[in-house]
């Protein structure tokens, strides 16, 4: 008989923690418990990937009528029903949370709706007052968005709040230049909101391929998003009547006040917000949305007291197998701040279960991870950017940008980008970058080939599917440039 109450106790009911619990219990026969203080499904299901992607879909319908007219359809435009969409969204998230709970139950996992913290290397304490011991403890607590250190930053909202807004604002300022900021700039613009975006850097989407970043920034501005680079907030406060009338020096009204906020509205101002930018200009917005970074959920759960090492941002320091400095404590997902993507957390959860319970030590390759940014147009990427690759050795760049057939026929100026980065010596494709509608779907398949070590000649031997945008990936014969 085991000396512990459980073989595994998982702290966190997000995608990574749930997968690890299910595999350990359902496939390895371990006795497993999981504690979640909030909703099951974590950031991805409840306040991240899933509701965001549904909002992406909703925002894209706005241009359908105009495009359809270009194809001969006589359609009338209508308005967007935010409250109706929210109702369906809420029902879908409830359904998915129920699925997660059922999966755990069917795998034999004991679930506790409570906040968990560590007492020592083998003991977990719940907010209900219960205590349990476990041979292994897995920290899968995820992360949360943070506000910048700006006076009155509490007046703005963060990504967790966007899905429960009582009404859509007429105007919004989005602060940040990462994928969350850019995605929501496109989403909200597509839903009819007047969007202004401040980013303190020289170009949005830092860390991604430079050419792709530039095309997306141009497309966002062409669609009507007011993108201000090299710009940040230095001061913000609730707007006064003078601010709204434009009487204060430099103030410009960017919209009308929101309706009175509901009692359970997310954190943020109940009315318009006056903002001063680094260029000394002032504006009034209905809402300010901070997309300026995230932080691991590791505060106040006894990690350091139990001997676990934390990094500068509060991330759990782990080895290649997700084990912490304490042999019985492991960590996966955003709590470790390695690659903060849901599929990565799931893969780490599976690898943990293989290592800890199946006698099959398994590492996760964090290098070749396909990913998508759901801007409009979408951005799919895998492997090295052109800038990263040229720092490692001689390369050839194959790239083409063109107007796709579907939108060109409808009269839209949209452009797409297809790009391959090739090692000059080995001929291996080191990176693929696609900016186009459906790029996320395309990059998943390109990721398989690149992960297998495909060469440029392997791509060239592949027969094109015509007429498609993606055929350009296998028909580019001559390099655009070398480096």
Task: Please name the defining characteristics of this protein.
single chain, 483 residues, alpha/beta, seven-stranded mixed sheet, six-stranded antiparallel sheet, 13 helices
Task: Describe it.
The chain is α/β, with parallel strands linked by helices and about 475 residues long. The chain has 13 helices and 22 strands. The chain has helices at about 15-25, 40-45, 50-60, 65-70, 80-105, 180-190, 210-225, 240-245, 340-355, 385-390, 405-410, 440-450, 455-460; strands at about 5-10, 30-35, 110, 115-120, 125, 130-140, 145, 170-175, 195-200, 225-230, 235-240, 275, 280-285, 285-290, 295, 330, 370-375, 380-385, 395-400, 415-425, 430-435, 480. Strands 1, 2, 3, 4, 5, 6 and 16 form a seven-stranded mixed β-sheet that branches. Helix 1 (about 15-25) runs parallel beside helix 9 (about 340-355) and helix 3 runs parallel beside helix 6. The longest helix has 25 residues, at about 80-105. The chain starts with 5 loop residues before the first strand and ends with a strand.
